């Protein structure tokens, strides 16, 4: 029997999709199904260094995916929810969930990507990981080390490394679930987090006329952008940005009724230097322009 071996040179120019498809072809050609091959099944585990301008348009996968930021940042959108992922952030998405990812201007993006599934087995993924795609920030955590090991050992040949990688993946589920269930995470710390979310709400209500940014909210609360958005929405049913717009709309209505300010002056009072931008925002939130709102309230 004559075996042919094709060695592909490593290249950073290969696209993310090319690396995935090439790896899948290799797995199929080598016949990965053996008696020791039991779930979880790891399809891909690698360290990916994205080009400066890079992105994946909206798509779905048939498997689960972990995406862990090793360096830099990227914008990741899953089922319409955007996450600005930075160093140490781990997110995941399930099969058939729509997602897209793009690099940010001036930011590098190096990530560990793990693609896996459980075959026909009913594995309690959501029960262990929770309902949110953002799993947490794991700098200097065991999760960080095990993801790096999984990406490194996955490319080693033989059943010993394959079984070791499966074990690492299962350990990751355990570590993430344990991290979520720690008393500091779930109980005692929850009150502190709630207090920080209330602080953010009050800050937005007091500074609605200013240019409120997510980085300001991160600085004030000490929470990551993704985490504070999740917690704020859990508490108030809307994101901080949506709440800011709601406060501005309410204040604009009050000024329209109780003052003689022009629409342009009202726009400035609620944080908009451009009256047209303010008008579009107000109409999108109320279904009518501010002038129409005034006409529906005030008789002359």
Question: How does this model look, in words?
Answer:
- The chain has 300 residues and is an alpha+beta fold.
- 23% of the residues are buried.
- Residues 1-35 have low confidence and may be disordered.
- The chain contains 12 helices and 8 strands.
- Helix 9 (240-258) crosses helix 12.
Fill in the keyword field for this structure.
12 helices, alpha+beta, 2 domains, single chain, Jelly Rolls, 300 residues, Arc Repressor Mutant, subunit A
Distance between the termini: 96 Å
Percent in strands: 15-25%
CATH architecture heading of the largest domain: Sandwich
Supply the number of structural domains: 2
CATH superfamily of the largest domain: Regulatory protein AraC
Question: What kind of oligomer do you see?
Answer: single chain
| Outline | elongated
Portion of residues in helices?
40-55%
Give the topology.
Layout lengths: L15 H15 L10 E9 L5 E5 L4 E15 L2 E6 L2 E5 L5 E5 L5 E9 L7 H5 L4 E4 L4 H12 L5 H23 L1 H4 L1 H19 L7 H8 L3 H12 L3 H19 L4 H7 L5 H12 L3 H8 L3
Antiparallel strand pairs: 1-7, 2-6, 3-4, 3-5, 3-6, 3-7, 5-8
In short:
This protein has helices spanning 16-30, 125-129, 142-153, 159-181, 183-186, 188-206, 214-221, 225-236, 240-258, 263-269, 275-286, 290-297; strands spanning 41-49, 55-59, 64-78, 81-86, 89-93, 99-103, 109-117, 134-137.
